[in-house]
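Hi all, posting the design record for the shared folder.

TITLE: backbone redesign
STEP: 1 of 1
STRUCTURE INPUT:
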């Protein structure tokens, strides 16, 4: 059974044919590693740091842009809350479909009730509509179903924009749950009943697609 990740849902939403190439036909095409290098380094350092590992030998290897991103993260108010887990795989079932992904980190603060924060570090840009981005919806639904979450706990998603050194915080209101579940089940159902049109209209974003040369 397929476990749908946010990237899978986003890919299908943007182009069903690209989804077919990538996730059904499993055609893997090379991409420039430099596009992802900064993000990979920052995520790896964050994971080691939160686990309490010694990263003193790794920090000097960062270039200037990577150091700025890393220092912005280390000094971020949410990054310094109580550590729960990092690089954490989490999934849940919504209707007939399984969804899930790997969370950068989960932290929490305790007052009258516990508040759990999903942290997602962005070295690029945050989603244009973060409250209804598939990553937001999938991660919040999955964490709300986690065994260590109580019904009275609060859950929030935090996009940490390391480029602009700012945060985007989204609270998981109970009234949003059914709305998120409907959006997820709708797109998952569309994927499982995928039909690729014979004539696909070329879009501007196609110029940057790694599958451009094999696209019909």
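Okay, here is what came back for every position:
SEQUENCE:
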């Amino acid at each position: 059974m397929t476990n749908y990740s946010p990237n899978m849902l986003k890919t299908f939403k943007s182009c069903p044919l690209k989804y077919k190439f990538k996730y059904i036909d499993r055609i893997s095409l090379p991409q420039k590693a430099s596009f992802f290098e900064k993000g990979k380094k920052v995520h790896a350092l964050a994971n080691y740091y939160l686990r309490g590992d010694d990263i003193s030998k790794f920090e000097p290897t960062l270039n200037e842009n990577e150091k700025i991103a890393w220092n912005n993260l280390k000094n971020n108010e949410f990054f310094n809350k109580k550590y729960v887990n990092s690089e954490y795989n989490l999934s849940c079932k919504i209707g007939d479909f399984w969804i899930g992904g790997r969370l950068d980190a989960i932290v929490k603060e305790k007052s009258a009730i516990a508040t759990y924060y999903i942290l997602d570090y962005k070295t690029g840009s945050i989603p244009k509509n973060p409250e209804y981005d598939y990553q937001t919806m999938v991660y919040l639904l999955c964490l709300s179903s986690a065994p260590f979450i109580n019904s009275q706990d609060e859950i929030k998603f935090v996009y940490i924009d390391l480029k602009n050194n700012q945060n985007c915080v989204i609270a998981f209101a109970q009234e949003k749950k059914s709305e998120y579940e409907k959006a997820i089940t709708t797109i998952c159902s569309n994927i499982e009943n995928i039909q690729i049109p014979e004539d696909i209209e070329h879009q501007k974003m196609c110029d940057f697609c790694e599958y451009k040369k094999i696209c019909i």
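COMMENT: The first strand starts at residue 3 and ends at 4.
Let me know if anyone wants the other runs.
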